Amino acid sequence: MPHFVYMLRCKGNRVYTGYAIDVEARFNEHCRGRGAKFTKAFPPECVLRTFELESREAALRLEARIKKLKKSQKERLAVGDAALEDELRAGLDDLLKPKKKHRRKRLSSRP
After folding, report:
1. Topology of 3-89 in CATH?
2. What is the pLDDT of residue 64?
3. Given 26, 49, 78, 105, which residue has the most CB atoms within 10 angstroms?
4. Where are the domains of the chain?
5. Is residue 20 a contact partner of residue 7, using CB atoms and an 8 Å limit?
6. pLDDT of residue 102
7. What is the pLDDT of residues 8-22, one digit of tens each?
8. What is the pLDDT of residues 32-59, one digit of tens each?
9. Dist. CA 89–CA 106, nearest whole Å
10. pLDDT per position as a tens digit, 55-77
11. Is the confidence at residue 98, as pLDDT, over 80?
């Protein structure tokens, strides 16, 4: 099943980025004021761009990367900057390194 990251143009020329399995249904939720505080405050006007990915994990990673971009970079991505898209997609399917477990120091009752 495909997973999608989408970019919306919202009121005030703002850009919202989100994740969905069904972008059209999610867009309609945003239009009704459901789903995100941001789109409730700044209603969506249109879908700027969608990105299809094979896994939920990859889609969520791409969404996080897009959200970290500056507005000018988001605008470039929205109009189809292939180099920027390739850069963002690089390594999405790489396995994450397991986190090291931190040992807590025991407080001894010895003086």
Report:
1. GIY-YIG endonuclease (3.40.1440)
2. 96
3. 26
4. 3-89
5. no
6. 65
7. 999 999 999 999 999
8. 998 899 999 999 999 999 999 999 999 9
9. 43
10. 999 999 999 999 999 999 999 99
11. no
Taking a C-beta distance cutoff of 8 angstroms, is the pair 47, 7 a contact?
yes
Packing angle of the helix pair 71-78, 82-89 (nearest 10 deg): 110
What is the DSSP track for the chain?
A: --EEEEEEEETTTEEEEEEESSHHHHHHHHHTT-S-HHHHHS-EEEEEEEEEESSHHHHHHHHHHHHTS-HHHHHHHHTT-HHHHHHHHTTTTSPPPPPPPPPPPPPPS--
> In degrees rounded to 5, what are phi and psi of residue 32?
-85, 0
